[in-house]
Amino acid sequence: MFEKKKKIVIACPSHGDTCYVNFATSLHATNWPGERPPILISKAKWVAKALHEMVLRSRELKADYMIWISNDVAWESDAIKKLIAYDKPVIGGWAQGRYSPFQCHVADSWSPEKNKYHVVQNPKERHGLEKVAANGGEMLCFRMDVFNKIPEPWFFGKEMVQVDKNGKPTEMMTEDYFFFGECRKYGVEIWVDWDCPLYHAAAGLMSFKGDLIAR
Q1: Which domains, from first to last, does the chain contain?
Q2: String of DSSP letters for the chain
Q3: What's the N-to-C CA distance of the chain in angstroms?
Q4: pLDDT tens digits for range 5-59
Q5: How far is CA 159 from CA 55, 156, 169, in A?
Q6: Which residue in 32, 71, 120, 199 is deepest, having the highest Cβ count within 10 Å?
């Protein structure tokens, strides 16, 4: 008997139509696990809304996995193939933030008392697979059955607006961290492959007298 090939869909939610050369090069060089997948894109939409629609479209396409990729990252040719092979509910590589101090986008724990995530401080020293509290959404592989365990709309809801003890709004949560909270609520595991580093475009930099300066 031949094993059924896994069908994947690539989801690239974006507000604009900027295309980074490294992103395009990685897309071209990727060793896909099977046929080249359809790529869903969006323009001028809130990312959370675009992702919701992309999940619905991935269902229509009878996908086994949906890969969310930001349009300002790059990856090694076998990265997507590796992530799918792990067959985890949610798994990604790891990236650092775009702005100084360029913190890792993976959190290894969450404090219910403070409602805060603890960001991993030593990503270069870690290797292999690790179950984590959050993985910041630069390249995430979702097994489609996850969206049966977590109710719609998946990437947004009233909990996105955090309030103080008087009910005054204090902070707006991003769509990826809202989703991680839903994963925690409904018992969905989140993983990182520390041997799957991602290139991430840096911003907020300038040069002066030959030196690179973080603003």
Answers
A1: 8-150+189-214 (3.90.550.10)
A2: -PPPPPPEEEEE--SS----HHHHHHHHH---SSSPPPEEE-SSS-HHHHHHHHHHHHHHTT-SEEEEE-TTEE--TTHHHHHHHHT-SEEEEE-B-SSTT--BSEEEEEETTTTEEEE-S-GGG--SEEEESEE-SSEEEEETTHHHHSPTTSS--GGGEEE-TTS-EEEE--HHHHHHHHHHHHT--EEEEEEEE-EE---SEEEETTEEEE-
A3: 58
A4: 789 999 999 877 788 899 999 999 999 998 899 999 987 789 999 999 999 999 9
A5: 20, 8, 11
A6: 120
Say what the alpha-carbon torsion angle 112, 117, 122, 127 is, to the nearest 10 degrees. 80
Residue 211's pLDDT is what?
84
pLDDT digits (tens, 9 = 90+) for 63-75: 999 999 999 999 9
Tokens encoding 159:
């909990």
